[in-house]
Specification:
Radius of gyration: 17 Å
GO molecular function, one term: structural constituent of ribosome
Number of domains: 1
CATH superfamily: Ribosomal protein L28/L24
Number of strands: 4
CATH class: Mainly Beta
Largest sheet: 2 strands, antiparallel
Organism: Nitratireductor pacificus pht-3B
Order of helices and strands: EEEEHHH
Structural class: alpha+beta
Strand order of the largest sheet: 1-2
Oligomer: single chain
GO biological process, one term: translation
Number of helices: 3
Strand content: 25-35%
Protein name: Large ribosomal subunit protein bL28
GO cellular component, one term: cytosolic large ribosomal subunit
Length: about 100
């Protein structure tokens, strides 16, 4: 399991620890990932994802998981999230046609 957010694609960054004596050693900046259960209104089911705390704020800001997925770019999403996005779009299209 990679250390990357399934919704925003936020992943590990690298950099340096710099001491007072200006010694540099490599380090990793890890994203703040949480296991979260989000509810999809279109699919009427709960979805368990591993997302960053920042992504949770974005999901709330956009009005829920379905709205976030519809607006998100496919290359940022994980494979599971892309599958979920296609299911949501299909279900919303069915609701629009009815």
């Amino acid at each position: 399991m990679s250390r990357a957010c399934e919704l925003t694609g936020k992943a590990v960054l690298t950099g340096n620890n710099v001491s007072h004596a200006n010694n540099k050693t490599r380090r990793r900046f890890l994203p703040n990932l949480c296991h979260v259960t989000l509810q999809s209104e279109a699919l009427n089911q709960n979805v368990r994802l591993r997302v960053s705390a920042n992504a949770l704020r974005s999901v709330e800001h956009r009005g829920g998981l379905d709205a976030f997925l519809v607006k998100a770019k496919d290359n940022e999403l994980s494979q599971r999230a892309r599958l979920l996005k296609r299911q949501v779009e299909k279900k919303l299209a069915e609701q629009q046609a009815a």
